[in-house]
Amino acid sequence: MWENNGLAKRLGTQYPLIQAPMAGSTTPELAAASTNAGGLGSLGAATMTPEQLRLDCQAVRARTNGSYNINFFVHEEPPLDPAKDQAMRQLLAPMYEAVGLESVPEARVPFPSFGDAHLQVLLSERPSVVSFHFGLPDDEALQALRSYGAVLLCSATNVAEAKVLEARGIDAVIAQGFEAGGHRGTFAEPYERGQVGTMALVPQIVDAINVPVIAAGGIADGRGIAAALALGAQGVQIGTAFLRCPESATHAVYRDALANASDDGTRVTSGFSGRPARGIENRFIREMQGREDQFPAFPIPNSLTGPLRAASAKHGTPDYISLWSGQAGAMSREMPAADLIATLIRETDAVLKRLAG
Ligand SMILES: Cc1cc2nc3c(=O)[nH]c(=O)nc-3n(C[C@H](O)[C@H](O)[C@H](O)COP(=O)(O)O)c2cc1C
Q1: What is the pTM of this model?
Q2: At a CB cut-off of 8 Å and minimum separation 6, what does 189 contact?
């Protein structure tokens, strides 16, 4: 029912099962292992320099001849706001002290939105799938990607966003439910309009558009995949469940937090980056709650929280790390990506068979 379905054929995979792009957590090893196991491996490239992007594309290609996906953030260049930069630096000063760091650095824009330099790398490395978060780049860039045959995907967090993506000619829409780990893909503000759960979001987007829908958010085993298919999705994108694979770049402290996760342990915060993202609640999230008016625009806060996160990990404490996780983090399993994909396929087939009676 799902093996080699229309979406899988389009993606160039055996199964329509996407290992989610996760900036900072995905690696060429993870992406290649996921692809070689019959899914679609992805790299979150939002924070990569063009040079790094090229090296990582080549590192994936050295490990697999199959399809892979490269993902970018498409966001507005942040307005300069020295008052907010200063306010956030003050908020962070005691946390820096707690992990033995001297002073909070000056705020800066740590990485650009998707742009021409990234596009040029894609045009030469030619990943078969390119996906976007926070909306789409301009038509010229999309056309350039289509001209070498790239399949284009983008996240939507409500029906209106899905319709915008369809009108822009996207090949498939990722319906990202509120359960999802990491950044909300919401691009039509206010953010509060993108808080629909996967169960309600997927069928409504399926009914509203004519391109395939990929369900994302809170899916961690074959029951979740079968449910997504039942809701009308043609495929799934799974993130958190891959974070404990040995091929992921997940720090040991973060792995421990996932191993001890619970169903109600995540919160949405914009404290780390300036945009709402779901992670396991920790001291940082608690202390930043209600202070949103003091955060500079995305992605500037990353330049202020980056050293703090790194020092927190080095100290072996989860207090100030961004522990991105979906609401099904407690269902994540520690196993190699190839085993995880084989397990997910086996479980899904078993559920589908049971339901078929
Ligand atoms: C650690 C982490 C990092 C993420 N980074 C990205 C990213 O760089 N680009 C992106 O499109 N989505 C990113 N996401 C969101 C995923 O694409 C996907 O929507 C989400 O993982 C699905 O929910 P799940 O985590 O419950 O499986 C990230 C998710 C996690 C958990």
Answers
A1: 0.98
A2: none
